[in-house]
Design goal:
Creatine Kinase, Chain A, domain 2, GCL_type2/YbdK_subfam, EC 6.3.2.2, Gln_synth/guanido_kin_cat_dom, 358 residues, alpha+beta, ligase activity, 48% helix, GCS2, 6-stranded antiparallel beta sheet, 13% strand, 14 helices
Length: 358
Amino acid sequence: MRSVGVEEELLLVHPETGEPQAVSGAILAAAGREGEFEAELHREQLEFATEPHRVMTDLAGEVRRWRKLADERAAEVGARVAALATSPLEADPTIGTGERYRWLSKEFGLTTQEQLTCGCHIHVEVASDDEGVGVIDRIRPWLPPLLALSANSPFWQGVDSGYSSYRSRVWSRWPSAGPMEVFGSAERYHQRVGAMLATGTLLDKGMIYFDARLSHRYPTVEVRVADVCLEADDTVLVAALVRGLVETAARDLRDGRPAPEVGVGELRLAAWRAARSGITGDLVHPLTWRPAAAETVLAALLDHTSDALADSDDLSFVRKRLDEVLSRGNGSQRQRNTFARTGDPRAVVADAVERTAA
């Protein structure tokens, strides 16, 4: 069974006003806590990474522990944490300290300033770069449904963006972000990465922001399309589905099944539709490339990965959690429902704070 780990970015907010707070430096500087959390591009963010796990209940427990600890550490400096992929309130974020962040700010200007977004990255173990690239080539059509499922960023600068995941639209401004063509081999993958770095546009391999990439730190495929989820259970659901996709793709690779013939143009359209609709409207079906209800597309995703999920004892868990999300809604829907009930974006943040620390 493949191990899976999660990286989550959390928003630091004022406990009363809900406004983003630039206090990550104070949290990270606390004596004796080196390595607990990581800095992000903006000081209004905090990131944690779980250990790799093979059992989803273990992963769920660690995600909850990290969220709770992040909230405790934030409270020590007069803030709270919220699992929100964008701020529902207006924000003027502060670029983090350090040479890397200064370079990004100078090189990319307003794009860097406007990146106060929180994502969720899923790492799944692979045996080699060759297997990893074979996986990346084969999971491409199924990544937009994961974005739709995780969508948790309807608001931007105090207004409803009209999108379920506006974070993904902001993130797509980076020149290396988004879907890529089929690579075909690890050699070809590394050649393309090298060619991109040779242009001088990107600082280093850490700026290879593909929707799915070979991790430059771990022996994993890293899937980077998801918003940070409001509910910890939804994070674990996305992680289980990603592991199912990776295992399914690895089996297809071993059996000699080719990667789907779909272009970057269609993938970009599917990602746009997923960001716009979330799970409340039509998505682009990864098998027909025609519009289909989100519930239909997610059922197809479950069917596509069902053998791998069954072999890892995740099938019943995924089926149950998927039904729950479709019934209660994802983070984007909850945010909008809270705002519709209260008319107050501060209430949206307050609700997210309580859900994050629960």
